[in-house]
Amino acid sequence: MRKLLFLILTMAGMLTAQQPVVPTPDQPGTPGGEDVGNYNVTNSFETGYRFAEIGGDLGKYRSDVNYRNGIRLFDSSFSINSKDGHGHWFDEILLNTIGLGNDPYQSATLRVEKNQLYRYDMLWRLDEFYNPGVAISGGLHLMDTRRRLQDHDLTLFPQSKIKFRAGYSRNNQTGPALSSVQEFDAAGNQYPVFMNVRREWNEYRVGADVELAGFKFTVLRRWDFFKDDSVDNGVGPANLIPAAPGATLQQFTRFEPYHGSNPGWLGDLVSTHKHWALNARMTYTGGRRDFALDESAFGLNLGAAASRQILVSGNADRPVTAGDFSISLFPTERLTFVNNTSVHNSRTVGDSTYTEFDNLTGLGTSLNFRYLGVRTVANASDVNYRLTDWFGIYAGYHYSDRLITTIEDFASPPDSGLAGATYLRNNHMNTGTLGVRFRPVKPLTINLEGEIGRDNLPLTPISESNYHSVNGRIAYRTRTLQLSAQYRQVYNVNAPLNLSEYSSHSRNYTANASWSPRGWFSLDASYMKLHVDTTSALVFFAAFQLQQTPAIYLSNIHAANLGAHFGLAKRVDLYVGYSITKDTGDGRIAAIQPGIIDPVQGLLNSVETFPLSFQSPLARLSVRLNTKFRWNAGYQFYNYHEDFGLLGNLQNYRANTGYTSVSWSF
Amino acid sequence: MARALSTAILWLIPLLWVTAAAAQTPRTAPGYIGNTVCRDCHADVWEPFYKNPHYKSVASGNDAPQRTGCEGCHGGAQAHVAAGGGADTIPRAFSLMTPKQVVETCLGCHANDFSRANIRRSEHTLNDVACTSCHSIHHAATPKYLLAKKQSELCYGCHTGVRAQFEMPSKHRVNEGFMQCTDCHNPHGAFAATWRMSDRPRMVEQALGNEEPCLKCHADKRGPFVYEHPPVRVEGCETCHFPHGSTNTRLLRRPVVFTLCLQCHNGGGGFGTRNNGETRLSRTHNLLNPKYQNCTTCHVRVHGSNSDAFFLR
Q1: Looking at residues B280-289, what average pLDDT do you find?
Q2: A182 and B269 in contact by Cβ < 8 A?
Q3: How do the domains of chain B map onto residue ranges?
Q4: Which residues on neighbouring strands pair with residue B154, listed in sequence order?
C-alpha cells in the first residue's frame, strides 16, 4: 500500500506545471513519520541556495519573475496526528511553508485542530511586487512594494450542530513608489513624485452556525478598517516629458489620509432534503471613508515663480446589500432543476470640497456631490437531465435587470446651492445556455455548450451586448494516459452606431496530454492558441484635428508547455521542461507597416499588434541519498523578447536562475 | 445580575445541546455491520486513515455506522462481506457511480454549508465534474481538503488555457505558491456576481461580504470614492484587466494604455451613465504628443478619486 501511495504521489509530482523550478516535488521516501506517544509526526524540509543572473531590463525581470540570490527554506511540511483521535490538547497540527528566507513569494499555512472542540487555520503570505511602469507611464509609476496578507480562523465545536466562528484578516502594503503630477496647470509638465506607500486593512469576524429541524442557519458579523496614509513628497523631480520648456517643479508635497471602515453582516439559511434543497443568503456591507488632501507645489513657470496649493476634504459612503434565494428540485434521480434569484443594491454617495490657490491667489472653493446607485435583479433557471448513463443535457436561462442612477452636483461657492442633474440608465440582459454531455465509454467524455446573450443597453462600448459563445471539449482519461482538447469561441458585437463600432472575437484552442506509462517515466505536454481580434472606434484630436477612425487590435498567442520526468536507477529523478508564450501578432515585421506616412495612421498602426515571446526551459536533478535525504539542483532560463517595443521602449531581458538544495524528511 | 444570569443561560443552552447530542446512542441501520469488519481485509486503507478528516466522526463514536467510517460513504457492507468482496457488492463503490450519484453521496454530509449552496447549478456539476474528480479520499496529495493533486495542478488538468495564462509574463503568482485558484474561485459553485449583469462569471467567489474578490487584496481600489469610475464599480475589474495572466504589463487587456481607454471614451453610441457617450478627449489632448499617449500619467487615479472628477489626483 505504501508503495502504491508513494507511486501515486510521485506521479502527481511529475505532472506539475512548468514554473518555477523549485521547490522540488520529489520526496526522499514515503513520509511514514515517527510515532511519538500517541501521535505520529512527519517532517520535511528543502533548504538551499538560489541564484539569479540577469541581463537586459532588470526592471521587467523583477516585474515578471523577481527571483534573486540567497539561502532559502524553499519548502517545508510538518504534521502531527493523534492516532486515536483523542489527543489531549490537539489531534492534528499541519504546518506548510513555501519560499521562506527572502523569496519574493512566501507563504505559510497552519492548522491546529482538536476533534469536536476547535479548529484553527492560519494563512500568511508575502508578495514583493515590482513594476517599472515603463509601459503605462514612461517609468513615472515605478512601484516596489511588499504586500503581506494573513488570515486567521477559529471554529469552536466544528463537528457540532452549533458552531462558533471568529476570524481576523490583515493586509498591508508598504514600500517606495513613484506617482506623477501635472503642474502648474492642465497644460503643464508631468513630474514624477516620490510616494511612500502605507496601506493597511484589518478585518474582524465573529459568527455562528446553527443546525435545527433540517435547516442550517449561518450568521457572520464582520468589521473591517482601511487606512491609506501614503505620502507623496518629491523635491526637485526630473521633468521627463517636457511640454512646457522652462517650467520646473522645485518642491512638492501631498498628504492624503484616507481612512474608513466597512461593517457588515451575512446571514445564510440552507436546507437539503431528498427531493429539494433551498438556500437563502443576505449580506449587508456598510462603507465609509473620510479623506483630506493637502497638496503644495512650488517652482518656476515661464521664468516666474509659480505655486499651486490644493485643499480637498469630504466623505464617501457606500452601503451594499446583496441577497440570493435558490431552490433546487430533484424529483427523480436523473433530473435537477435549480432556480436562483439574486438582488444587489449598491449606493455610493460622496461629497468633496475643493479649494485651490494659484500663486497664492484663491481660485475659489467648490462643493461637489456624487451619487452612483446600482441595482441589479437577476433570475436564473438551470435544468440538468441525464437521459442515460452516457448522455446528459442541460439548459439555462438567465434574465437580469439593472438600474444605474447617477447624480452629479456642483456648487461654487459651496453655499450657492446645488442644482444637480440626475441620470437614469436601465438595461436588461437575456442569456440562454444549452449543453450536452456524452460519455460513450467510461474514460471518454465529450461536452458541447453554446451560450447566447443580448443586452439592450450596455454601459460601455466594450460591454457584452450581442454575444454568443461556443465551447466544445473532449477528454480521454485513464490511469496512465490523459488526453484532452478544447475549443472555445466568444463573439461580441456592441455597435449601435457606426461611431461606436466595437466587436471582439476570440478563439481559444487548447490541447493537453499526460502520459505516465511507468513509475520512472512520464510526459506532460500542452498547447494553447488564443486568437483575439477587436475592432473599435477611436475618437481623438491630433494637432487640433478631430479624428474618427476604426482601430484594430490583434493578438495571436501560442503557448506550449512540455515536461518529461525520468526516474533513473531508483535513486535519481530528472525533470526537463520547456514553456513558451509567443504572440505572433498579425505577422508584420515592423511596428508601422511600410507605406504609411500619415502620422495619425502611423500611431494607430503601431499599436495594432504587439508580438513578443517569453520562454523558459528548465532542468532539475534530484538524487535520493537515503530514505531521509535528497540532493537537488536545478536550472531555469528566462528569455523575454519584444519585437517592436512599446512606444519606443524595449524591455527585453535574459535570466539564468537556478538552485541547489537538500531535502530532508522523516 | 439578572442580565449576567440570562447571558450565562443563553451560552449554556447550546453547550448542553452539544453535550446531549454527543450522549445519544447511535442506531445501526439494516445491512450495516460497522468499520471493524472492513479493517480485516482493507488494513492498507485503514492504517493511515487516522490522518484523514473523515476519521473525526469515527473517533467521536457518536454517529451510527451509516453516518461514519467506511460505511458512511460506501454503504452497508453486509452483502459485500457475505460475498467475500467485489466492487459490485459495495452499495456505493465510487468508481462505478455516476457523477450525480457521487455528488449526492458527498452532499449527504457536506450539503449544509453555504459555500456549497450553488453546487447543483455550478459549471462543474453541469459538466459532470463530481467531487471525486478533484478529491481523493484515500490517496490525497495535499495536507488539507483531501485534494488528489496540488490545487493548481488539479485545475490545470482541465483548464489548459488558464494554465497558459499563468505562464505569461504578467500574471498573478499562482505557480509560485503565493496564491491559489480558490482565492478567487469557488469550485463548488458561487453566488451570482454582484458586478456586470450578475450573469457571469459563475464560479467567482464574492469577497468582503458581497464584492469582487480582487478587492480583498487590492484594498486600495475598493473605495468608496466620491468620484467612482463607473465601469470599475459596475462592470468589474476585468473590463480592463485579464485576471489570470496577460502578455501586457499589469494584466492589462491592451499593451498601450490609450487604446484601452479610448475604445470606451469615444463619445458615441449613448453609452455611459449620462447616456450621451463616454467622455471623449478634448482638443487640448493632441494624441500625437507623447505626453498624451500615457493617459494614466495625468489621470493617476483611474480606479476612483476623492478629489477630482477626472482622476487627476
Answers
A1: 88
A2: no
A3: 223-305
A4: none
